[in-house]
Amino acid sequence: MRFGAMTAAAVRWSESEVQAEDGYRIPLRIYDGPRSGLATLVWAHGGSWTRGSLEDWHAACLALTSLCGLRIVNVGYRLAPRWTHPTALNDLLSVVRWATAHLTDPASQLVIGGDSAGGTIAAGAALWCRDHGMPVAGQILAYPPLDPECTAPSYLAMPARFPERRQLQQAWARYRGPLADRRDESYLTPLNGSDLSGLCRTALITGTFDPVSDDVRSYAANLQRDGVPALLHTDPALEHGDFLFQRGPRPNPVHVWINTVLDTWFDTTHDHNRMRTPR
């Protein structure tokens, strides 16, 4: 039995706020499907760390929830350049703590994820959680940029392809802030981590011709090197940003992949509150 698609009408959604450590009120949209007691997916939206909002990602999160039936928490983290790293990371971690304390079932699990720049932030959050003993059942990352210098060959293979290397380098610079003001960058990107052992299971997706694809493949290889269960899916038809788009009546392919990952991780045919053994 797969999670299967449900109608959007079967999804309940609401808005809330979580207080960050500095007192800022982080806005959330919470989407609940019929299987919300099984797991919560805390999602960080994309937008090159400088754009994106709960409203911009609303339709996509609604569609994903209607497909997988779980609880999805869409996080309105603070954006650059006004807010530089690690503000967005800390906002996401505040929501992870809140979501962990508000799991709808005692046996429910928490997963962190994000698309594009949100995937970068989610990857840093997963590392932080490992280092600070916060249990996370997995991370799901859709085409995250992971190298601030954008040095891999995939960035140069098709210079005009979105996201363009120069634009992404500029977005990284705005996210990191002026050189003189940069704070601890330990969790800026998981490519900085020399040892990934003990990290939660990870699923990654990228387009074959996405400029960030070499970053994603390198991270997957590093995870596997350090013994972390890591699933990498490369799709020749996938474009950067496709998490947002619905083309025709068929489900969004990124959403279908996320649903498949969750079906792989969770035993939906027996006890809905048991995780499968890592494959």
UniProtKB/TrEMBL annotation:
GO terms for molecular function: hydrolase activity. SUPFAM superfamilies: alpha/beta-Hydrolases. The keyword Hydrolase applies. Pfam families: Abhydrolase_3 (PF07859). The keyword Translocase does not apply. Keywords: Hydrolase. Residues 41-241 form the Alpha/beta hydrolase fold-3 domain. PANTHER family: AB HYDROLASE SUPERFAMILY PROTEIN C4A8.06C (PTHR48081), ALPHA_BETA HYDROLASE FOLD-3 DOMAIN-CONTAINING PROTEIN-RELATED (PTHR48081:SF8). This is Alpha/beta hydrolase.
